[in-house]
């Protein structure tokens, strides 16, 4: 039994130690994401060991979490322990197959450890996620090279270069690959394939002198000197004045003992390149030619014979053919003229030689004129037609380079209609298509494209060209549908090609729809694009923006998350994520989300804009919650990053206005730039703020009251001065009342108070404890009519969303008057004999009135609604008065308003008592009123208010024929009292 007890005690102790040790090492992180975020910050700061220690703690609590395993693999990669790194990275992928970061790092691990096949596999997996990442394609090619699989690397490089023809990096890689290939072929003795490869290289890079020299040398090694000479001419045409090519061609001609041709050539080239080396070569060549001349060149001998008069066909033919072949242009022109004299101007052979000579002389116009003459004479000759077609193509190319497509079109149409050569014919149709497109003759372009696809079924660019033309014809939807059909029918490689083409058309089309206001159409097209290419950056951006404009907030959130998945560091998507939080009114969460991103991209306009917008919303939210200090702190933080944001400054002014800091409110709100429609209202609002800034105010009020049944006027005049501050306001008030009424014996008096003058002096203090609490205290003393003593205390609490509640308590010492009647013998004797009692004055009594009440108010934009109830305790009885009111502020200046009110109760409203107006208790009193105020200028505001009071009136009289038997009677009725309040407020 004891042993079992000890065993339990031991287990409890161990459990206690385990719990305490765990709590001692707990860093307060509750989720794997928190561990991952802090560890990444450690690694970013080169605090690798601190990050590893925290990472081990996280993996102990959350084993096999993908991001944590990736970070552990990253740590071991940094330590160059690649086996450990691989182990954790593979575990990361096991937990989350789509962990892109882990796969990227695994590619590096396998590359460094020379496991190239594995590295290629991981690259393929990454390409499944983002097949349009050019960097991954280049990495894959690099891995094939390291694997010594140059065939696959070259094939892939060629294919990717076709998909991205405008990528300069891929183009350089492609050229480099071909260059390495031909160098290897040359070293291996495979000269023919090396020549083919060099030919392709020269097409791609026609300005590379080294390529021309290499291909010339290869042809010389093959024994083909004429081809070498041809390439030297091509090289000099592409690179005029090239010293190396001049030397090379001259050397070949010298080896062929064609000294006159070499000398003529070098003389011509010295016009462009008269370097010392070229001049020395020329002089040396002259010496060699002179020595060779000793061997008696047949051309010279035939020339001497011809000049001597032996002008037979043999000599002329030899001299003509040799001069043309050797490039003796002057001699050739001479012998052509001689031949025309002997054989006529229309001899086919002579004309063709003349044409060839002009071509050698680069006299294109003369060559074309001669060729055109031959074509007109021999239209069915294949060679002449082929040459004519080549001339037309050459002219077309030059005209197209100058943008003269209309002039180039007849030349390519000539070639396309001759069908002399399939390749030439295909090139002519393509140029015709290009001309029609550039001339915006799109119907002819479509017809030409139909012809091309009919005669050349293997034409690969048909879909691309047709879609391009349809787009130019404003049939973009049809073009996109064409791409969609091609995508459905294509293999994986071609699908990528077509998707790229689809995106190139879709993006401008979506942009056009957005600019035209066709947001729904833009949204539909953006969704199609994103479904084809989920990683399309512009597609995702348009999908997000259009869905937001259409109010499709679920789609907006969906595509924002998709954008963050593909582009986690892209500020645009981070800003849209903040918008999602804003839509849920989670402004504080939005700011917390944006702060680390803003620290990372402190100058990014999108992030700054999102942060400013969230700050503005949060500040307004805090203002409604009556927390202006917090609101100002939020705005000040935003202005640190966006100091010129006028909307932020305006909002800051709004917060200051809510906090009764009119001077600061005016300073910041003046930055706002109103529209034309808003301008007058905004200027009015600024005037209201200027008025609020004034600390002193004098108010003059005149009340004029008149009974409905009698022409009896009652008036009250008020003058007051107020000194206003942010937290405290002090008011001194003087009320004056004059009453018409009987003061002596008059049986006709209907009033319930005596006539005379009353004055009341009042002081008032209002204090704001905080944006949520304020109190008002006032006290007054009066001589007559007004309550002898008045004291009020009111407390007001400002709630969220512009609600207010208030409570108040007040004390008044009020006077009550009754008529006093006495027996008068003279009055009785002089009267009718039925009454001897005469009104001799007033009896005054003092009563205490205690008031307790509450108020509820709500502001809805420009309307303020309020309700108030007062409970009066008077002569040990309870009375009440309930009021409702509404104020409408139409002018946006904070002062101009239209005011309506009503009340009902067994007691009059408090203002009736304060202004010494008639009223009654224990019977129903009603009141309705309408009026308003108008701010004339920041210094002057005027007001006018009218009220209609209905109250119970009681008049006591005494009659009788005996001094010992007075008969007291009371007459009651309801009376109407109409009041007009005129007000003038002067601020300074």
From TrEMBL:
Q: Does the keyword Signal apply?
A: yes
Signal sequence range: 1-24
Any one Pfam family match given in the protein's UniProt record, by short name: YaiO
Keyword terms: Repeat, Signal, TPR repeat
Which superkingdom, per the lineage? Bacteria
Name of the protein in question: YaiO beta-barrel domain-containing protein
Domain YaiO beta-barrel: residue ranges: 695-817
- Supply the PANTHER family for this chain: CELLULOSE SYNTHASE OPERON PROTEIN C (PTHR44943), TPR REPEAT-CONTAINING PROTEIN MJ0798 (PTHR44943:SF4)
Q: Does the keyword Chloroplast apply?
A: no
Q: Which InterPro entries match?
A: Beta-barrel_YaiO, TPR-like_helical_dom_sf, TPR_rpt, Ycf3/AcsC/BcsC/TPR_MFPF
Source species, please?
Bacteroides xylanisolvens
């Amino acid at each position: 039994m004891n042993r079992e007890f000890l065993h339990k005690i031991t287990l409890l102790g161990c459990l206690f130690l385990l719990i305490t040790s765990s709590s001692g090492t707990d860093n307060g992180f509750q989720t794997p994401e928190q561990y991952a975020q802090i560890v990444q910050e450690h690694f970013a700061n080169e605090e690798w060991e601190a990050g590893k220690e925290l990472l081990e703690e996280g993996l102990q609590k959350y084993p096999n979490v993908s991001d944590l395993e990736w970070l552990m693999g990253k740590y071991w990669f940094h330590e160059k322990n690649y086996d450990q790194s691989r182990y954790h990275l593979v575990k990361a992928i096991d937990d989350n197959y789509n962990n892109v970061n882990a796969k990227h790092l695994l590619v590096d691990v396998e590359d460094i450890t020379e496991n190239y096949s594995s590295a290629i596999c991981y690259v393929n997996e990454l390409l499944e996620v983002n097949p349009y990442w050019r960097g991954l394609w280049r990495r894959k090619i690099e891995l094939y090279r390291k694997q010594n699989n140059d065939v696959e690397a070259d094939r892939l490089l060629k294919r990717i270069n076709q998909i991205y023809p405008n990528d300069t990096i891929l183009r350089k890689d492609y050229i480099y690959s071909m260059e390495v290939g031909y160098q290897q072929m040359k070293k291996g003795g495979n000269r023919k394939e090396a020549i083919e490869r060099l030919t392709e290289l020269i097409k791609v890079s026609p300005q590379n002198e080294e390529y021309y020299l290499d291909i010339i040398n290869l042809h010389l090694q093959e024994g083909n000197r004429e081809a070498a000479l041809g390439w030297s001419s091509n090289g000099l045409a592409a690179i005029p004045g090239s010293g190396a090519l001049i030397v090379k061609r001259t050397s070949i001609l010298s080896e062929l003992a064609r000294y006159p041709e070499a000398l003529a050539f070098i003389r011509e080239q010295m016009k462009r390149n008269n370097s010392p080396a070229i001049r020395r070569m020329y002089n040396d060549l002259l010496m060699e030619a002179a020595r060779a001349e000793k061997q008696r060149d047949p051309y010279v001998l035939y020339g001497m014979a011809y000049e001597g008069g032996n002008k037979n066909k043999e000599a002329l033919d030899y001299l003509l053919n040799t001069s043309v072949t050797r490039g003796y242009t002057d001699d050739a022109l001479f012998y052509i003229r001689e031949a025309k004299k002997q054989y006529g101007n229309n001899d086919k052979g002579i004309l063709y030689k003349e044409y060839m000579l002009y071509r050698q002389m680069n006299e294109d116009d003369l060559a074309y004129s001669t060729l055109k003459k031959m074509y007109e004479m021999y239209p069915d000759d294949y060679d002449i037609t082929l040459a004519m077609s080549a001339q037309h193509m050459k002219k077309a190319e030059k005209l197209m380079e100058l943008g003269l497509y209309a002039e180039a079109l007849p030349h390519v149409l000539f070639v396309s209609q001759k069908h002399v050569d399939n390749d030439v014919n295909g090139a002519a149709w393509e140029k015709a298509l290009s001309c029609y497109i550039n001339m915006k003759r799109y119907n002819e372009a479509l017809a030409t494209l139909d012809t091309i696809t009919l005669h050349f079924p293997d034409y690969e660019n048909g879909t691309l060209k047709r879609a391009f033309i349809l787009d130019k014809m404003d049939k973009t939807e049809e073009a996109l549908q064409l791409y969609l059909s091609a995508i459905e029918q294509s293999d994986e490689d071609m699908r990528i090609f077509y998707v790229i083409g689809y995106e190139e058309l879709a993006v401008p089309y979506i942009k056009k729809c957005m600019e035209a206001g066709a947001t729904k159409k833009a949204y539909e097209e953006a969704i199609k694009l994103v479904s084809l290419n989920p990683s399309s950056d512009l597609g995702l951006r348009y999908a997000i923006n259009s869905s937001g404009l259409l109010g499709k907030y679920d789609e907006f959130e969906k595509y924002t998350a998709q954008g963050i998945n593909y582009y986690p560091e892209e500020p645009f998507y981070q800003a849209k994520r903040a918008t999602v939080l804003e839509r849920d009114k989670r402004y504080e969460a939005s700011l917390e989300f944006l702060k680390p991103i803003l620290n990372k991209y402190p100058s990014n306009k999108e992030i700054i804009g999102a942060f400013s917008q969230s700050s503005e919303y949060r500040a307004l939210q805090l203002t409604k919650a009556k927390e202006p200090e917090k609101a100002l702190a939020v705005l000040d933080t935003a202005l640190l990053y966006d100091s010129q944001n006028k909307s932020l400054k305006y909002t800051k002014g709004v917060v200051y206005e809510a906090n009764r800091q009119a001077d600061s409110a005016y300073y910041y709100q003046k930055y706002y730039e109103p529209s034309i429609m808003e301008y007058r209202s905004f200027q009015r609002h600024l005037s209201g703020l200027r008025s609020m800034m004034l600390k002193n105010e004098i108010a003059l009020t005149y009340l004029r009251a008149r009974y409905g049944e009698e022409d009896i006027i009652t008036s009250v005049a008020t003058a007051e001065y107020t000194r206003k501050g942010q937290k405290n306001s002090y008011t001194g008030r003087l009320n004056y009342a004059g009453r018409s009424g009987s003061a002596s014996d008059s049986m006709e008096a209907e009033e319930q108070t005596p006539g005379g003058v009353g004055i009341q002096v009042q002081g008032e203090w209002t204090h704001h404890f905080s944006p949520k609490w304020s109190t008002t205290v006032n006290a007054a003393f009066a001589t007559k009519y007004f309550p002898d003593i008045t004291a009020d205390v009111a407390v007001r609490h400002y709630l969220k969303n512009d609600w207010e509640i208030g409570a108040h308590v007040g004390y008044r010492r009020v006077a009550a008057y009754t008529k006093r009647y006495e027996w008068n013998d003279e009055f009785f004797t002089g009267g009718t004999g039925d009454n001897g009692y005469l009104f001799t004055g007033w009896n005054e009594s003092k009563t205490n009135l205690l008031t307790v009440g509450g108020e509820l108010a709500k502001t809805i934009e420009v309307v303020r609604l309020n309700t108030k109830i007062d409970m009066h305790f008077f002569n040990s009885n309870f009375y009440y008065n309930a009021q409702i009111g509404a104020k409408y502020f139409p002018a946006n200046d904070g002062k101009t308003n239209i005011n309506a009110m009503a009340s009902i109760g067994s007691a009059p409203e408090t203002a009736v008592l304060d202004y010494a107006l008639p009223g009654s208790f224990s019977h129903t009193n009603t009141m309705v009123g309408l009026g308003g105020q108008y701010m004339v200028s920041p210094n002057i505001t005027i007001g006018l208010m009218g009220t209609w009071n209905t109250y119970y009136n009681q008049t006591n009289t005494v009659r009788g024929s005996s001094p010992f038997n007075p008969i007291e009677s009371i007459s009651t009725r309801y009376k109407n009292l109409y009041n007009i309040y005129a007000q003038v407020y002067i601020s300074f």
